[in-house]
Design a protein that fits this description.
- With about 180 residues, this protein is α+β, with helices and mostly antiparallel strands.
- Strands 1, 2, 3, 4, 5, 6 and 7 form a 7-stranded mixed β-sheet that branches.
- Strand 5 and strand 6 form a beta hairpin.
Length: about 180
């Protein structure tokens, strides 16, 4: 689909660089209106909470992260084009965040997988995290959910709610 990898990489990196620099115009630039953003565990398809759908919701979620976390490091490594999917760019990222309220530090590496539409817009962004790093992050923002993951049991908070009351990942509730 894309023979010009430099152009493909430029489109794919624009939202990542926009997040890093807190340049929301740059971040939004290539996102398709119906874009999706998902956080995945390496070796696991998708987390059960589902992706964030829509460019406005994606921006809201990432702005809330920037509002609650100091981004001390966000280095994008050498990007490459997926060998079988020519519209997929893979970008390794090394990061270090400090939670403003608690002072907890979340650091590690993530692999961003970015799919580009034929019209040159970003269709999907998936962050692939290792289990321990993601559990450390969730332990800060949602300790009950971590207890459920680690102990392989349902969260008491979730059991007490009706299914319609469970907040999806793309809810307007920020990551605090």
């Amino acid at each position: 689909m894309y023979d010009d990898f430099d152009r493909l990489a430029q489109i794919a990196l624009q939202p990542l660089e926009g997040f890093r620099d807190e340049d929301w115009t740059k971040f939004r630039g290539p996102l398709a209106r119906n874009a999706t953003y998902a956080i995945n565990l390496r070796g696991v398809c998708k987390l059960s909470r589902g992706p964030i759908c829509g460019s406005t919701r994606i921006e809201f979620a990432l702005r809330s992260i920037r509002a609650n976390w100091d981004v001390r490091q966000f280095e994008i490594g050498v990007v490459k084009q997926h060998t079988n999917e020519r519209d997929l760019v893979i970008a390794p990222i090394v990061f270090n965040y400090r939670h403003r309220k608690s002072g907890h530090v979340w650091e590690g590496d993530v692999t961003a997988r970015i799919w580009i539409n034929p019209d040159g817009t970003v269709e999907e962004i998936h962050e692939c995290h290792d289990r321990n790093g993601l559990v450390a992050f969730l332990n800060i923002v949602e300790p009950e959910l971590v207890a459920a993951i680690v102990n392989k049991r349902r969260s008491p908070r979730r059991e007490a709610r009706k299914p319609s009351e469970i907040l999806p990942l793309d809810s307007p509730q920020p990551f605090v």
